[in-house]
Amino acid sequence: MSDTRKVSAGALMLLVGVAACANDSEPSRHFAVRLEIARDSTYYEGREIRLPFDSYDLSRDQRKEFRKAIYQVSNACMKRFDLEWPEATYTGTIFMDNSRRYGVINLPLAKKFGYGVPLPSGITIQEAQKTAEKNIERTRSLPQEVRDVYTGEGGRNFNGRVIPEGGCRGRAYEELGLPVSGIESTTLDAMRYETWSQARYNSIVIDAVKKWSACMKEAGYSYKTPEDAVGDPSWQRSGAPSKEEINSATTDISCKRKVMLIEKWHAVETESQRQMIRDKPDVLDALKRDLDLLVQNIARVRSAS
Questions:
Q1: What is the C-alpha separation between 273 and 287, in angstroms, rounded?
Q2: Is the pLDDT of residue 146 over 50?
Q3: What is the rounded radius of gyration, in angstroms, for the C-alpha atoms of the chain?
């Protein structure tokens, strides 16, 4: 059941100061926003973590269509050379795009997978690994000439036919309105990392992390940060999680819930991203135009299948 009760008879009011820059020519400044943060258990029960920057990138379903469009165009190109490029197999995962942004937070999944990446029902870790290995071997075992035509790295001609710049893969990217090298996400990735870092090292989140660490200490786990817990070498495995890993992961989440770590972290980063959108409208507007065009091109290519 969703728990959105207010803290201490009202919402937790916190003043957040996030570093921001109006434009590249101005010095860094700070702004202060009073955030109203309520306790919400849905964060720990599978709630999708949404952030303002998500609207400037392909959704998970759109990325699936993007992969299909790339295969559709590139394989048609390969056939013109009497060659074929195998389609990759994807087992997929069942966590949302931002669900690991703040460490492990989904209690039902942690009870099964510990700190590991959750898989769809019926897919074991071993099966997922075999699928990944088969995808690698599928392309590795292809003749060099096939790989050269696909990537364009082996020259511009094959059997008297001109290979497109970037190969057949580059041809597919061009058909979608992209450079032959593919999607350029450096700008958005950099802004995402910046806002994550601003939030992570904001005093509100730092204080919550300290309280989380104390909670973990009481349970017998000496981790200073959630990053330390996820990165514990003890959890680096190839098989199913141990009972100790599951205990650590579920305790991790229980402590986050207790100190409202995710509610606070998400609220601070949301405000940080909103501020960056206000400060850099030209950059974000350009990203949105590029995204809209890409989505239109994907739909056009897929409708031609």
A1: 14
A2: yes
A3: 23
